[in-house]
Amino acid sequence: MTKTGTLPKEDVHTETSLGGRWRVVVLNDPVNLMSYVVLVFRKVFGFDDQTARRRMLEVHEQGRSVVWRGLREKAEAYVFTLQQWHLTAVIEPDEAS
């Protein structure tokens, strides 16, 4: 405490990892059928058939696909939902933003 009876001003540093933009990445796995992945993308993200198929092919051919970008809380919710559908998904910082 200072002489005036107030606490000294603290320098509050908020970690930017909670803010900023994040991306949801779906990883390839040897278990799920391509048609199933398309179905999940359509249901979870509301993708049209062409977009869902394009993302699924990225996962299949490149091993991963960024399927969504945005705030961390929503990204975590998407990852949880995708995992409930038995897809392998992670979040990572979106360095491009």
Number of strands: 3
The portion of residues forming beta strands comes to 15-25%
Q: Please indicate the count of domains.
A: 1
Give Rg in angstroms: 19 Å
Q: Structural class, judged by helices and strands?
A: alpha+beta
| Main sheet record | 3 strands, antiparallel
Whole-Å distance between the termini? 41 Å
CATH superfamily: Ribosomal protein L7/L12, C-terminal domain/Adaptor protein ClpS
CATH-derived architecture:
2-Layer Sandwich
Q: Spell out the helices and strands N to C.
A: EHHEHE
The percentage helix is: 40-55%
Describe the protein in words.
- By secondary structure, this protein is of the alpha+beta class.
- It has a three-stranded antiparallel beta sheet.
- The protein has one domain: Ribosomal Protein L30, Chain: A, CATH 3.30.1390.
- The longest helix is centred in the middle third of the chain and has 14 residues, at 49-62.
- It has three helices and three strands.
- Helices cover 40% and strands 20% of the residues.
- The chain has helices at residues 34-45, 49-62, 72-84; strands spanning 22-27, 64-70, 88-93.
Topology:
Blueprint: E1 22-27, H1 34-45, H2 49-62, E2 64-70, H3 72-84, E3 88-93
Antiparallel strand pairs: 1-2, 1-3
Overview in brief:
The protein is of the alpha+beta class and 97 residues long. 40% of the residues lie in helices and 20% in strands.
Task: List the defining traits of the structure above.
Ribosomal Protein L30, Chain: A, single chain, three-stranded antiparallel β-sheet, globular, 3 helices, alpha+beta
